[in-house]
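tool_call: predict_structure(chain=1)
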Amino acid sequence: MRPDQLRGQVEENLRQLGRDHLDLVNLRLMGQDSVSEHFGALAELRDAGLVRHLGISGARPEHLAQAQEIAPVVGVQNRYGIDARRGDEMLRACGARGIAFVPFFSIAGGGREAGAVRAEHDQVHAVARAHGVSPAQVRLAWILQQGAHVLAIPGTGNPDHLVDNVAAGALRLTAEELQLLDSIGRPSS
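tool_result:
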């Protein structure tokens, strides 16, 4: 989508939702090197009162720096989880700047977002057994313990899973368990 098309998209969302403003709009990046034009267009919509807050999604740290030169960024929505941690640098950058980091596919894990059935990691099973919870709850607890600025998107339509997701927020993993889970996907030394 071109920057000049963003206003039409925002206005269509407002019409469909019956609202006069959107509280948050994330600019979803699709491999761009620069976010300046697109984020600038969203900043104009914010200045016009159609959008209250701006975020970015699928971003790298350099995108965050570019966006912040244009307007305040309240959140970064990126893929991140126990076995999908190429975003460690962005997680830290957001924490240092007081920006919400909103990981997606944090419960699904590597390859599961496409509906693929994969075996769960032994480490996740071990921690789940120790607490008497599901592997999904362990994954969610791990994500939430990555920092006070981390907000999770567990995404469920199942009421039982919703109850489990809320309970995972109270699950506190030990330093040893966090270290064990951190070893997933990293080469042994």
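agent: The beta strands are 22-28, 51-57, 75-79, 100-104. Proceeding to next step.
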